[in-house]
Amino acid sequence: MAALDITADLTPLTPDQQARARGPDRLIWCLHTTALRQPELRWIHTGHPPNCPKPHVTTHQCPGRHQPNPQPALF
Ligand SMILES: [Zn+2]
Prior knowledge:
Elements lengths: L7 E2 L5 H7 L6 E6 L5 E5 L12 E4 L16
Antiparallel strand pairs: 1-4, 2-3, 2-4
The structure holds zinc ion.
The site of zinc ion has 5 residues, from loops.
């Protein structure tokens, strides 16, 4: 399993919040917990059960600072 280099807001979303948060550059993730009790984000694909009991989260976006193509860090 490859590590995901994303920043996620780990607050579970209601289905209504998921529908509003979902966008072309903002994905919804299913928050699993590994055997080592580490949080693991899995992309929600077409086979995802609609009544999944796990928390669903979205990528974090700072209000007013949306950068679709973030610049590389200078240091
Ligand atoms: Zn799920």
